[in-house]
Amino acid sequence: MEQVVSVAQGRLSGVLQGKVAVYRGIPFAAPPVGELRWRAPRPPAHWQGIRQADTFSPACWQSLEYCKAVGGGDPGQFSEDCLYLNIWTPARRDAEPLPVMVWLHGGGYTIGAGSLPPYDGAAFASRDVVLVTVNYRLGHLGFFAHPALDEENPDGPVHNFALLDQIAALKWVQENIAAFGGDAGNVTLFGESAGARSVLSLLASPLAKNLFHKGIIQSAYTLPDVERKKALKRGVALAGHYGLQNATADELRALPADGLWALEGPLNIGPTPISGDVVLPEPMLDIFFAGRQHRMPVMVGSNSDEASVLSYFGIDPAGQVELLRRERRFGLGLIKLLYPGVKGDAELGRQVCRDMAFTTLGFVVMQAQQRVNQPCWRYYFDYVAEAERKTYANGTWHGNEVPYVFDTLSLTPPASEYVNQNDLTFAGQICDYWTRFARSAGPHSKAIPGPLSWPACVRGKDRTMRLGVHSRARFKVENRFMRMRMQLFKRVMKHHVSLD
């Protein structure tokens, strides 16, 4: 049975799955190909008749194997023509408009897609939330700086094309989500890893003001943005790699899209946005340190074994401790005092890298929220499915909270093969917290209801919800969680967190 809706560009036919209507592959911008590569996204074209929205669009060019291994599954086909979104909404809707949640996938800005199995929105729709997942440009197609392109932009340089895609998707949602039963005045933007980093960037971008009303930041990292000057050098080096000295914009746009994703260091990207263009005139971290982010309720947190992701960037946590010992910088003795009872370089390095690169950002965001008198809900995710506890002996890996948030454990391999009812119950409780935040959190909210009332961090209150404790299904509110570590790492992270 089809579900037809009218949007600004024409009529769309979705697919009915039980009590949920799904609309796949909706264009929110013109294809960013040919002349439109490395330009701000243009509006999508209108169409005649009814467009079938029953198939996911291609993802942006990326590594298939890498995405299957660590990005959440098989992203399907690839194309430079990738600016599409997907919507899940209750098939039967009351007159009351529903809260909207817009998901930005992770993957270091190099892999991922809004169509991956963990991001299925049926559980959100069954809780009376309209879920939108977004594709955006990845790799060099999403972030690129070159003098030849600067000349085309008299209003200022443009480098963060991926962020502009996300902004275009939010504008499309503002214009069209009412047709799907959504409330354009209650949009929560949320994401994990690079997706969470994108939420932070849009909280800091003047171009995203008033396009969303709440933010959820899952496992964002403290790496500084790439400076414009450095990005321009990288762009010139990339052109040189293809034999293009003093390249023109036309020559750059003629480069094969399917070859750019495979480039390795030092010709690869980020994984952070570029500061110094019209999207991010200032570095995102500077905006948050100064408390100048857009004012809205925020949820922020990270996982108990975030250091699991560092091996993909060639970082050995034990080696980082040895480096501190060798260089005698930053006081290894002080660090050991902050981690009493932690034995051995490997375990100390794992916890220090986790906290410096991930946990501290939740503390920074909380303090920024307190400066602007907006509530912040902080969490620390530490649940592991019962059958996986030997595999994930150190806690929740980077990204492993996502199928709990989406309540898609039974759809997400390999967990889908052995999850039990206890795991599924816990996932349902996590999804409930997220949807309740989207539905009712406001500037004066004090708590989110659930198995344990989750209090907001307001001025003078530093509270963290433990979502799982020592991998077990418990909820616990802690005051001043890791406070001494957070204060130290906040002071030094801008000088000590890098991939160089």
UniProtKB/TrEMBL annotation:
Which keywords, in A-to-Z order, does the entry hold? Hydrolase
- Taxonomically, the superkingdom here is Bacteria
What are its E.C. numbers? Answer: 3.1.1.-
Q: Which residues cross the membrane?
A: none
InterPro entries (UniProt xref): CarbesteraseB (IPR002018), Carboxylesterase_B_AS (IPR019826), Carboxylesterase_B_CS (IPR019819), Type-B_Carboxylest/Lipase (IPR050309)
List each copy of the Carboxylesterase type B domain by range.
Answer: 3-319, 351-476
Pfam families attached to this UniProt entry = COesterase
The family this protein is said to belong to: Belongs to the type-B carboxylesterase/lipase family.
Q: Entry's PANTHER family?
A: CARBOXYLESTERASE
Protein name in UniProt: Carboxylic ester hydrolase
Q: Give the organism, scientific name.
A: Cedecea davisae
